[in-house]
TrEMBL record:
Pfam families: MFS_1. Its main location: membrane. PROSITE patterns: MFS. Gene3D superfamilies: MFS general substrate transporter like domains (1.20.1250.20). This is MFS transporter. It is found in: Cell membrane.
Length: 403
């Protein structure tokens, strides 16, 4: 394929990841404000956040089939417009102080984010394969960088008391414009999964059904690796700001800045992480990453002040950086089965990413949200135990993964 087309697709994929991160962080950074506007406890806010998870759980298992039918570009657009529609509903609901309409909007937001995420990861794996080097962490660095900007914007708007409704309305305009323009630069053979199949050497009609990957032992174990990493990242996205406000007495802006510190660290390590993977291998990098995440989490929770908590957030973000992108790469090792396996691993990861943090909110009602974060350590240890499943597949192992 024309290398200029591949480079253009890489830039477009990076941009789509970045916009996705910006949108998600714009919401996450202002969760304390939403909690205040709707007058909710941590447990009640956790229940509200479950509506995002519900929408994504519906969309994620279907996303691989949607990509195979309409292509990655159209799936990203569909997801983006659906998320934007959800954002409009949430903006209206917050202006009215309605918990019910906020929940409805977040369901649509979750559906959109789910479709968008699977499609961008499939496109990213395809671009990575054409480039012949590890770039998936850089795409996820785009997500983290977008999230960093979103967090800083959220902190700034919170500090000057800009309403959440106006904030969300502006994001809707941004997303809608980007969805029209950016995906047109995706790889053309992504359409109907053609590239995934063609690079695997098999005809399109032999492409596997998305649900078949749920019977594969390795795919499920890779999903468990991603589960711990996703819960680690998701818990920070949803709760590090509030844990800073409640546990350390910081302002809402201070909580958003702590979130920004976490995201900045994660972005930096994702941007350079591909070089470490190419030099030392996927499995050693995953062991190091998950161990660092566990150490950073403990430091943050036990920190006596903002400075030490910030140090913990740096380690936490660095450790959370590589698990999700390396899981996506592992799922896409065999290009002929990439769409189905990425869909499965994304589903497992996003259930943890979206459903786990709200459950921490319920626990936080009893022990405070800061101490509740320690529960993530159990999932991190489980992920460490399943890391060997993510080793790269040799070509001779394609289509022969144990079922």
């Amino acid at each position: 394929m024309n290398q200029q087309a591949v480079r253009s697709a890489a830039i477009a994929t990076f941009a789509v990841f970045a916009i996705n991160g910006f949108v998600f962080a714009s919401w996450a950074a202002r969760i304390p404000a939403v909690t205040r506007i709707l007058d909710l406890t941590a447990g009640e806010m956790g229940m509200l956040l479950l509506t995002i998870a519900a929408g994504s759980v519906v969309a994620l298992p279907l996303a691989g089939s949607v990509v195979a039918r309409i292509g990655t570009a159209s799936t990203v657009r569909t997801g983006g417009f659906t998320a934007a529609f959800g954002g409009l509903i949430v903006a209206f609901a917050l202006a009215q102080g309605s918990v019910t309409f906020t929940a409805v909007g977040l369901v649509f937001f979750g559906v959109g984010i789910g479709l968008w995420d699977v499609a961008q990861n499939i496109e990213g794996a395809d671009v990575e394969r054409h480039l012949g080097r590890t770039v998936m962490p850089q795409f996820h660095a785009g997500f983290s960088g977008g999230a960093l900007i979103g967090a800083l914007v959220g902190a700034g708007l919170s500090a000057i008391n800009v309403s959440m409704s106006l904030h969300l309305a502006a994001i809707v305009v941004l997303v809608s414009t980007a969805m029209v323009l950016v995906p047109r630069w995706f790889l053309p053979e992504s359409k109907a999964g053609a590239s995934m199949v063609a690079t695997g050497g098999g005809p399109a009609e032999t492409a596997p059904k998305g649900r078949s990957a749920w019977t594969e032992k390795r795919t499920l174990l890779v999903g468990l690796v991603v589960l711990g990493a996703a819960l680690t990242e998701g818990a920070a996205n949803d709760w590090i700001a509030k844990a800073t406000v409640d546990g350390l007495g910081a302002t809402e802006a201070g909580g958003a800045i702590m979130f920004a510190v976490f995201v900045a660290s994660m972005t930096l390590f994702r941007f350079f992480g591909g070089r470490f993977v190419d030099s030392y291998g996927r499995v050693p990098v995953l062991y190091f990453s998950l161990g660092t995440a566990l150490a950073g989490l403990v430091i943050f929770v036990l920190a006596p002040n903002m400075l030490v908590a910030g140090l913990g957030a740096v380690f936490w973000g660095a450790g959370a950086a590589m698990g999700f992108p390396m899981g996506m790469s592992a799922a896409a090792d065999d290009p002929a089965r990439a769409a189905a396996r990425v869909s499965v691993v994304s589903t497992i990861g996003y259930v943890a990413f979206l459903a786990g943090p709200p459950l921490l909110g319920f626990l936080g009602d009893h022990v405070t949200i800061r101490w509740a974060l320690l529960a993530i350590g159990i999932a991190i240890v489980a992920s460490i135990l399943t890391v060997p499943a993510a080793r790269p597949l040799a070509e001779s192992e394609f289509e022969s993964v144990e079922r």
